[in-house]
Amino acid sequence: MKFFKLILLQLGLIFNFNSQINFNDLYITNYQLEQTLLEVPTSTKEINEEQKIEEINNSITSDSKIKNNLKEENSNTKEQAIVEQNNEESVPENPYKNLTFSSSYEDLFLEEKSGIYNYCPSILVNDNINVFYCSSINSNEIKDYICYRKVNNENNGYYYTSKKIVLSPSENASDWDSVHVCDPSVIYGDFNYNGTTYHYLMAYLGCNSLDNQNNQIGLALSNSLDSNWIKLQNNPFIAYNYDTSQNSFQWGVGQPSLINVGNNNVLIFYTKGTYNLTCEMVELWNLSDLNNPIKLGETMIKNPNNDFISNADFALQGTTLYMVCDKHPFDNGILNNIPNESNIYRTNIDLNNIINSLQNCNWTQVFNINSNITSHKRNHNVGFFKDSYGNLIQNSVLYTIGDEINDFSSSLYTYRLKRLDF
pTM for the full model? Predict the structure, then answer.
């Protein structure tokens, strides 16, 4: 869950400034949820959008003229009605035609029920735009599921399929991910597991407590983006070793972000919160055989100047690595454990020495997502538009907005996804 924001902030302050804080005083009883949405990118291989719209309009105009002529010539005959019906049935249907539409500047996924939140998107663009995100299912119930929608961008807006749950908390109360599953990140590759090759890999955060502690990271596999996801039997893949000698808050590990750098060598970025620091970690694994994964290295990522990293997404563009993360500190208010701003950075890395590059990299800020741009109080949980392997395909993101109204619960259910270009 992302409700640990205040905790991350304070933990980060300890890491950066060596201050001492009593974490018992920072205990958060309410869960905080976060999400984001940005404009859907258009592939350079696709037909120019304006040309496509013009062709569609010309086709519609042509069909309309034919139908009008038929009406004039056969206005008083039964055959006229049959011809018109057959003509209409022969026109190919837009697969998104009868689905929900929203303007680019509205919430991406409108909810039929009240008391529902959406946040933390992971965007994979292949022949379609595929969005995985965290959401609640029942009105006014704080419980995270990982959901999926397929999106089509046209006419300065979005058509999208209905909400579909693709990963749920375990039904066994003793399992490590029985309370929440969230923070998805999905990539393509060839991942063998128990004798079957799967092409899609998801990393996700799971937890089995209501106090936001001991979060851990699991993996799931599928050959279909919208269904049949299976969890690894040996999850959690990245576990958190809770230090029982410390009587302090320990968030754990989570908020993963995946990049396949080739040959199923996968970078797993994640936030780590111990009893005395918050940092961003990265591990490099060969995941060709998930029954025998090979760890190739790990490091703590160097922080940008005057800040620390938490709640980050990453995307590769050639030898340039992009990162979007929380900006600290957070503003006071009802949602004071949720960032009001998110920063986008980039750095150059050596693909032949990735781990060392990330340990010693220098980040350059390229964009700041704030209320002056979005007109919303909280702007958090941002995800890049990436191809199947985790490469940035357009300078666009999905981000989560949150507004402060009345009380915490009311504010929580304002979490919606929106899009932005940078």
Answer: 0.77
